[in-house]
Structures are given as C-alpha cells and as structure tokens.
Amino acid sequence: MASEFDLQEELQALQDSGNYSIGHEHDIRSMQPGEMDALLQQAVRAIAESFEAVTSPDMFDILCSFLKCVDAVPGILMNKLLDVIMSGFAAEVDAAAHDIDHEDQQTCAAHKVPMEMYAFLLNWSARSVEKVNVPDEDAPAATAPAKSRKGRGGKATQSRVASKNKAAEWSWKDQIVPILTLIAKVLKLKTSKIWTVSGEKDTFIGCLTAPAYHVTENEQYMKSQPIKLGVYKVICLAVKHHGHGPAAQTAIMQSLQYYEHLSEPMAECLNVLLKEFDHAQLGEEILREIAAKSFNAQDTKGPRNFSRFLTQFAEWAPRAVLKQISLLLSHLDSESYPMRMAIVEIIGCLIRELACSEDLTSDAHQTQKQLNGLYDLLLERTLDLSSYVRSKVFTVLSRLCDLPVKFPKQRLAITRAAVSALEDKVAGVRRNAISLIVKLMVTHPYGLMHGGLLGMEEWEVRYREVVKELQKTEKVLDDTLSGNTGEADGDEAAESSTARPVKKRSRRRNKNAEDSMDVDEEGDDSDEVDSIMDEDEPESSRAEEGGDDGSDRQVDGESTQQTSKKSGSKSELAMAALTDEQAALAALESNQLLHLRLRKRYYAEALNFIRQVEEAAQMVFQLLGSTHKAEVLEAMEFFRVAHEYQLDSAEIGIKKMLHLIWSKDNSSMSEDGKELKGVRSRLLECYRSLYFDPLPDMEPKQQVNRIAKNMIELTYDATLAELTSLEEMMRYMMDDDQIHSDVVTKLWQVYSSERPLPKQQRRGAMIIIGMLALARRSVVQDRVDVLLKIGLGPVGKADLILAKYTCVALQRLNGSAKKVKGSLLDKSVRLDMDSPVFRKLQEAIEHPCRSREWFALAEQAINTVYALGDQPEVLSNTLIKNLSRRAFRRREKPVPSAAEEQALSAVPDEDAMDEDPPPSAQALISTMPGSTQGALTGDTAKKSDDTGDAFELSQLLFVVGHVAVKHIVYLELVEREWKRQKQEKELAEKLARGTGNDAASKDGEELDQVAGNAEDEIGDRIAAVRETELLYGPDSLLALYGPLLVRICGRPDQFKNTTLRAVATLSFSKFLCVSSQFCDANHHLLFRILETSRDPNIRSNIAIALGDVAVSFSTIVDENSDELYRGLSDKDLVVKKNTLMVLTHLILNGMIKVKGQLGEMAKCLEDEEPRIADLAKLFFTDLSTKDNAIYNNLPDVISHLSVGEHAMDEEGFQRTMRYIFTFIEKEKQAENIVEKLCQRFRLTDDTRQWRDIAFCLSLLPFKSERSVKKLIEGLPFYRDKLHEEGVYARFQEILVKARSNKAANKPDSELNEFESALDESRRQGEEDQAFEKRVEGKKAAAKKRATRRSSYY
C-alpha cells in the first residue's frame, strides 16, 4: 500500500467522497456501535504499537471506512477516530524531526508516505466531520442519512437519539485548535529532506493547509480568537518556509471574492505574515493583483469585500500599501464606488503614516512631496459623482485633523472644499462637511500666540498692528543700511556677511516654500507661519508683501550704487563713524524683520480661515431648517463650537437655533449605527452648556448673577418670533425644574431695582419672568404688588415697553391650562373689578402719551382686563367713554407755527420712547411714524371748536376695535360658563331623583334631549348678542363707533393723517369680524382700501384681517377671493408674504375653495425673494397631502400660467411645472392627465401652448402600459403639431422614458410603431407647412401682379 499511495491521485478521488474507492471497505452503516468500536479498536492498537501501521492497507482502509461513513458514527467513536489519527501523525512528526536532524537522506525519505497518508486522513477528517455539525453548534447543520432498522421505533426515533448522543459527546469546534496546532507543528519540519520533488512537496503542503482554509469559510469559527490565530499561524508558516505563496495568494483572492466575512481576517493574516514572519511578498502580490482587477457598477458584493480588505490592510500595514499605491490609484477611476471609497480610506492611512513617521532614513523633501500629492488626491475626490465617496472624503479629512502635525496650506484648501460642499444636494455630504468644519475649528493651529479665539475684529487689529510694526522696522533697517554706505572695503565685507545673507536666506526660503511645506510644531511659530503660502493671504497682504520685498531689493541696489559712487571720496571721519555696534544693529534689525514678516503671514492665514468659516456659517443658517435630523444636529454643533471660539456669526446662529424648540421629533433615532439625540433635547443641551450650566471656580452668588444676566441678554434685539421660541424653551425648562429659584429671585431684583438701570435690562428681566410664569403661575402670583408698583407705576409710564410686558406677565395669573376641545371646565382665575390691578391698567391706558408704543401697551392692557376681570365690559365701557371725552373735547389752543413746531420737536418728550422700539404685536403700529401732532389742514390761527386731535382719536378707535374683538372671545367664555352651570344643575337634579328603574332611565334620556335643546338655545342667544346687539343694539356703546369707522375709512381725502387712517382701518377690520350683518354691508370698503391704498402697512394689515374675517364669515370672503389673490402680485414684500400666508391658512384648512386662482400661488414659486418661494413650496407640499387637491386643479394651473394676461415666460413655466408635477405620484392620476392634455392640443392653435402641453406630458413617468396606450390613442389630437421642433423633442423624451421602464409588460412593439407614426406625422407636417408657405407666396405674388395690372390700366 505504501508504494502504491499517490497523494495527488487520492486527493483528486476525494473530491467525490461518496464514491471514493476503498480496497477493503467495511460497511460501517450496518454495524452496531459495539461492532464499530471493536473495528476501530484494531486500528487504535496497531497505530499505538507503531505509528507506521497507517501504511498497512488493512489499517488505512479501516480509517477510511470510518471517515467515509462518519455521519453514522457515534460521537464517542468520532472522538476516538480523530484522536488516533492525530496521535499517530504527531508521533510520525516527532520521528521525522529526529531523523531530519540526525540521519541521512534515505532515512528521511522513508517518512514521506506515512506523513502523506496521515495528512490525507486529517484532510478528509476536516471535510467530513464538518458535515455533521450538531444543532446547538454555530456551524450550519447537515442531516445525516441513517439506515432503517427492523422493529418498532422507526429510524426517526433512532435519529433523534443519535443526535442527542452526538450533541452530548462530540463537538467539532473543540477539535479545531488541536488540529491547527498539529498542522503548525508539521510545517516547522525541514521538508526538503523528505520531499526532493517540488511538485510532491507542494501537494503535501496543499493537503496539509486545506483544513485551515476550510475552517475560514465558517463565519462563526472565525469569531473565535484561538481558531483565528491558529489559521494565521498555519498559513504564515506554509508561506514563509514551504513556498506556499502562490497557492495562498489564489486561496486568499477566492476568499475575498466569495466570503464577505473574510475581508478583515485576511488583511490581519497578511499583517501577521509581515510583522511577525517578516514576509512582505505575499501582501504585495495580492495588492498588485487587486490593482489589476476591474469592477463594474453592477457588482456589489465583490467590490465591498475587496474595499474592506484594502482599508484594513492599509490601517495595519500602511508602508506595504504605500509601495503599491501607484498601482492601486487606478481604482479612483473605477465604476464601483466602494473601491473608490477604499482608496480614499487608504490615502488617509498613508497621510497619517507619513505625517507621524519617525523614520530618519526617508528624505523629508520627498515625504513632503508625497503628502502634498495625497492631499491633492483627496481634495479631488470631493467632486466625485458618488455621494458616498464625497461623504467618505470628508470623514477621512476629519480624522486627519486630529494629527499632531498641522498642514496650514492644506487646511485652508480643505476648508474651502468643505464650505463648497455645504451646497451639495445630498444631506449626508452636507452633514459630513459641517462636521469637518467643526473639527477644523476645534483643531485650528492659530492658538499658539493669542489663545485660539477666532473673532474677526481682533485678528484684523493684530494684522494691522503687525503691518505697521513691519513698516517701521523696514524703515529703521533701510536707514541702517544707508548709513553703512560710507564704510571701507573691509567694512563692506562685514556688511555683506551680516545683512545681505539674511535677506538672501529669506528670499531663498520664500522661494522654497513653493515646492515644499514645513510642518508646524506646537511651540515654534516661525516654522508654522513659514509654511503659509502667498496664495492663502488676503489681497491686501499680498500687495504689501510684494511691496516689502521690492523695497528690500531696491534698498539693496541703492546701497550698492551709493557705495560705488562715494567709494572714491570717502572721508576719514565717515570711516571712523562706522563701528561694530552698527553692524550688529543691522543684523538684529534684519532678524526682527524676518520675524515680523512671518507673523504677518500667520495673521493673514488666520484671517483667511476665519473668513471661510464665516462664509460657511451663512449656509449653515439654512441647514438648521433641514428635514434630515442628523444634519440639523451637526448644524447645531457648528454654532455651539463657533460660539465658544467667538466667531461673529455664532450669535445669530444660536438665536436661529431657538426655533428648533418646536421640533416634533424629540425621540432618539439610529442612523449608521449611531444613536442620535432628539433635536429639542440637543437644543436644550446646547443652551444649558452656553448659558445656564455653572462655571468651575465661581461663587454660587456669581453663578446666579451670570445665569440671570445670560437669560436677560437673550431678549436683547430679539424679534417677535425669537421671543416666542424663547418663551417655549423657558416654559419647558421651568417645567423640568432646570431653573433654580435663586435665579428667579435675581430676575425680580433686577426688575424692581431702584437704581437707574438700562431700560433694556429691566425689560429683559420682565420678559423672562413672564415666560417662566407661563409654566408656573406662582412666579408672579406672589409679587403682583411689585408688578403694579414698577411696571404700571412711574417706571412703567416712562418706559411703555416695560409696561407692556408687565401686562403680559399679569395675564399669567390666569394660568396657562389649555382648553380641551368639547370640555366645559374652566380653570382660569377671575378677579373682582375693584382690584387695584384694573385701576392701574386703566391709569396706564388713559395716561396722556403721544408715543407709538402706547398702542402695544393698550393692546396688552385690554388683553389683561379680559383675561382677569370677572366683568371686563364694565372697565371697557369706562375706558371708551373717557377716551371719547378726551378725543372730542373742545379746544381753543392756538396752532403753533412751523418754527414753533420745530422748536417743540427739539424738546424731548417725557413719554416718548427711544428710537429703536421692539417689535409690536401689530404690524401696523410697528411701522407708524413717531407721533402725530394733528390731522388738520389749513392755516387758521386757532383750532375750530369742532376739531379734535388726530392722535387722541386714533387712541380711541384702537381701543374700540380691540375691545370689540376681545368681547367676542369673552362671549364664547360666557357661553361655555352658562353651559357648565346648566350641566351641573341638571346632574345634581338627576342624582337627587335617582335612576333605579326603567321609567326613570327613560325620563333621563328625555331629560338629556331637553338639555341638548337648552344648550342650543344658549348658543343661539350668544350668537344673537354678537350679531345684533354689539354693533346694532340700542344700548350698545360700540354701535356708536361703527359709522364713524366707516366714515373715516371711506373718506381718505378728508382724513389724511397716516396714523388715524391706519388705526381706523385696523379697527374697521375687527368690527367686520363681529357681525355678519355689518360685514355684509361694509366688506366691499375693505377690498377697495386694499386696492387703492398707497400705504403698504395698511394693505398688509388688510390681508391679515381678511383671514380673520374668513374664519368668522367664510362665504363673504370666498365670494370675493379674487380680490385677496391680488395681494400676491403686490410690489411690497410684506404685503405679498402676508397674503401668501393667509391664503395658505385658508386653503389648507378648507375655509375658502380653490378655484382657478391656484396658478397665482404657483407663480410665487418663481418669486425673486427666497422667502416667498419657500413659503409657496411649503404650501404645495402641504396641499399635496389633501385628497387629489393638486391633481384636480392641475388643468386650471396649466391654463392660467400658459396663456392669457397671467401667463409666465416659457422657462419659468417649465420650472414651475417641473416642481408641481413631482406631486403627481399615483399612476391612475398620470393616466388621466395624459388623456386630458392630449385633448387640449385640438383646442388651441398657439405654438407656445403646444410646447407647454408637450412639456407637461414629458414630466409624467409613463410607468404603466395604460399611460403609453392613452398617449398613442391621442395621436390624432397632436399629429399636426409635431412639425414644431419643441413639440417633437418632448415626444422623443417621452419615448426614451417609456422604453427605459423595466416593467415586464412594456409594449415595445407598440412603442416602435408609435415612433414611426411620430416621424411620419412630423414629415407630413413639415411638408404641409412648406406647401402652405408656397401657397401663401403664390397668393402674394398674384396679388402683387394684380395690383400692378390695375395701376397700369
């Protein structure tokens, strides 16, 4: 048997192990376990006596028989089988090792056959036992066939019992490590003495290493560290000592191609081979083979495996990859983006290796050149077609920012690329670009001299200072060099050895900077600044730099000329004046000059970086409103870090972040395996860290003062929207007990301080207190007297804005519990009308004042009266009467002349506010002129008896209008209270009677019906009060002012005062919301004012008022909606924006019907103002969620924008339609639109409309067969239009789109016929057009001849 055993042939036969031929095969499957044990015991005894017994045909056949039927062998016998093979092999290896060291060649060769036979058995064992893995092991299970036995029980029972026995007695996973250890022991032998033929040796090594490769195919095995290390050792020993490199290369490449889990292990194996076995050739060969491969875009599995392998190998062995990088870079042009991503990762690893390497043997200049080239490659990839690659580039660059070595020139280029990427269309790329800019800020190299803050103004001051100092030093140096022109020849040599070499070195150093870049060290400013290139400086600094160098050269030349001219006439006195100290001074000044130039470059580069980050901030502002959560979180982090480094734009970004408090998504989410915080929680965390968290090493009192100061400063220069968002944040924080009571106390101290504080500071304290009281009523409940004393006292009368916010805080006494829809409960608190609160409010309103801030105060004061008073109409009645008496009282005061008015206007008004008022609650009031001194015209010396003051009349009308609106709300509260009282009364009566029997239950149901009728009666009664009594009742005070408002609004020629007209229009709009009778009679006046008024503030307020009127009486506005749509074409931006917002609200909430005017909304998509365009996009996005709203109105929109007086230009029409058609997603809708658009062709002869209809058709997806068929069926409608080039081009686009559809039922034959029909129709149309032109030409010629003939006769 030994002489006949051929390992190569046996391995070939083993490929089909089921048909493997055994000379004396034993039928293992038919044996009982005892018989199997006895048979196996023969082989055990034989091999135990002599390990060479395996060469005996009988013993070898026994072992082969067991391996062939291993699935039928009990677990305990499988252990014994593997033990006998391994123990015999181990003994053979020990004997061979001894003979190799001590015996001759012939003796060693005798071990060849036994070792090959043992290797064959071990190979077979690894293959066979893997197939019968037990269920609870990690490897995939294979069901082994079993022969049936006679008798009861059946083979299923036996199979389950056998499986349990194997599970209890056998585990292949536990045997893997000993087998790998034995193979490694074999591989340590010097096999050249045993196998003299290389082919036989390679076969043996291949047979021996096959189990190791077989183990790697199982992912679970490779998660075990001992198994993994054992596999690595086997492969490395075979490659290092036995020429296994080519075979290993093939096996590793196949593993990477077919097994996803082997990418990292194979990279680690090659790293072990390189580091521990000092063998780099295999890794290099594999890299070269991968570099030569090509991957297509459709292949996904292979490129991902190879990309992971390359990335891991580059991280562990960057030097080995660096040698082959020139070949690997070919994959930057690969169609497969995972390979491009891998090369990007590799470049990052190589940069890290080169930058941090301490290899003294490498050339520094060559290393710097390599680094520059690698950075350039990375920056090129920021423009890659794949967003994944672009994102990967920014991720790699972010990691490189953490390197201890800074690359100033590259950092500026990276910053520019990141800023450009903020406009990328993919959110992931933008997010990574923001993250990179944040990392660049955190790791910037400009903190060595001044602490690292990045305020633009400070750096510009430093730059200007160093420029001045540089100019001064240059002048001193010029004087020094000029003073040396009278020196002797020996002194000239001394000069040339001091000043001039310094200048030459400086120029040479600047020249070398173009080719190489010095790496800046942490403690060396000179090296850091020297690495900055000229192109990174501002233009001014480059100009100055060029001027400096030129002056140096000029001074050098002039000194040489002067020396040559005066050399012949030098005096002894001049030679004596030159001393060694002057030469030393020149050298010192020259070194100082070099240092200043470097500092100048340092500051120039810092300014360049700051300007780029400030530019990025302008784009990040917009990304705060992104719909992608991760992107918003990165934008918030950007502004948080920018605030820490004191960038100028950080404050604006922090304020814009406030609006994110309204974000609905506050839950954590997972993206790319990372847990992301909610937007709201992240916002609160940012604000706490910036403003509320205590600072270390600060006293508690100072901490409280700091937090209170920060809270107050948040209100400075805040818009109404920002204050609303800040209020929500403060409420949230107060609810969560994140604001300490000491901070609230400090705010009260600031508000009530008797010291003369800045008005803004006291206002801010009051605003914050009102916000906190929204969450906790007790904040103001215990200090009402302070509010009345300060805010509504002398201090408030001098500061009306403070008084206004004091009224807002008083409203918090009513609580902030939201009303539940349908509930009759009312948790509000009401005060008696004799409370001092209302007396102070009345005084505040009636206090004589001519400031425009009075209107905002009066609004909030009336709101407070209706929020807190149990009978607000009593105080309102008194206010209106008192203001009426003041407005209409007789006056005989002479009218001051123009000169006197000018003199009076120069005297400051005690009640007037500063020139920069905060935003008012009414857009009307916020844009009024400061005050009006009278509305009268004429030059009379005295006022007439029947003439009043326009400003006082404006105050009266404002109060009247606001009381009317608040009284409507108050009536709704009265209605709810009546219903609540009636419900309680009926419930008490019902409980008193009891409901014990059916009759009582029936009576209860009838009672419920009566109660429902009673509630209806209450509602009708309140509606009647609102409709007939408020504005038309005989005892109504408001009824007196309705005609007055109509008169003032309707006669602008008589009432010319701007303030009066604006207030009257506002109050008139509020009256329209009270009664449908009044609205029906006078609403046309409001539309006329909207059309004719020249004041944009009045038009803007009317647009808002029409929205309120539509809520109250929708039919009236719906009938006149055309008038409202005119505001969309208003020249004033505010009017247009308000009109768009009102229409959006009314349409989306179904208050007015969309008719043919939706096209006017669509025109806003192309508005020049981005805010208008964004609002229009938001409207259509929300409208698309309504049932078929856009689909139903699409034909009207197309007609409106294509023809007529409202038509857009063709390019604008196409952009608008392209956006609107994105909301046509349902296939059924697309089919119907195809049919409708085709029919439109026959109704028009306008070529522009032909092109527009064809363009709209080309926007449809044509995914279904029905859409294509409807288009083909409509061919008769547009057949005669195809000669128009634009129309034909659109139908060609439709054909391409239909053919690109991957549906199985794509009508290819019909599309071909359709294309032929299109071509034929186009040709026919062109012929018809040519014929018509010829006919027209002949007609014209005939007419011309007839004219000539008639003139001849």
Can you describe this structure?
The protein is built from 63 helices and two strands. Helices cover 68% and strands 0% of the residues. Helix 62 (1285-1299) packs antiparallel against helix 63. The chain has a two-stranded antiparallel sheet. The protein is mainly alpha-helical. Mean pLDDT is 79; it is low at 133-168, 485-578 and 897-945. The longest helix has 45 residues, at 1308-1352.
Which helices and strands appear, and what pairs or packs with what?
Elements: H1 7-13, H2 33-49, H3 57-68, H4 75-102, H5 105-109, H6 112-129, H7 154-169, H8 172-187, H9 198-216, H10 225-242, H11 245-258, H12 263-275, H13 281-292, H14 301-316, H15 318-323, H16 325-328, H17 337-356, H18 364-380, H19 387-400, H20 408-421, H21 427-442, H22 456-483, H23 489-496, H24 499-512, H25 525-530, H26 539-566, H27 572-577, H28 580-623, H29 629-644, H30 650-657, E1 669-671, E2 674-676, H31 679-692, H32 700-713, H33 720-735, H34 741-752, H35 759-775, H36 778-781, H37 784-790, H38 794-798, H39 800-811, H40 836-846, H41 854-868, H42 872-888, H43 898-906, H44 923-926, H45 950-993, H46 998-1029, H47 1042-1050, H48 1058-1072, H49 1076-1092, H50 1096-1112, H51 1114-1119, H52 1121-1125, H53 1133-1148, H54 1158-1163, H55 1170-1183, H56 1189-1202, H57 1210-1220, H58 1227-1240, H59 1247-1258, H60 1265-1273, H61 1275-1278, H62 1285-1299, H63 1308-1352
Antiparallel strand pairs: 1-2
Helix pairs in contact: 2-3, 2-4, 3-6, 4-6, 4-8, 6-9, 8-9, 8-10, 9-10, 10-12, 11-13, 12-14, 14-17, 17-18, 17-19, 19-21, 20-21, 20-28, 21-29, 22-26, 22-28, 24-28, 28-29, 29-30, 29-31, 32-34, 32-35, 33-35, 34-35, 35-39, 37-39, 39-41, 40-41, 40-42, 41-42, 41-45, 42-45, 45-46, 45-48, 47-48, ...
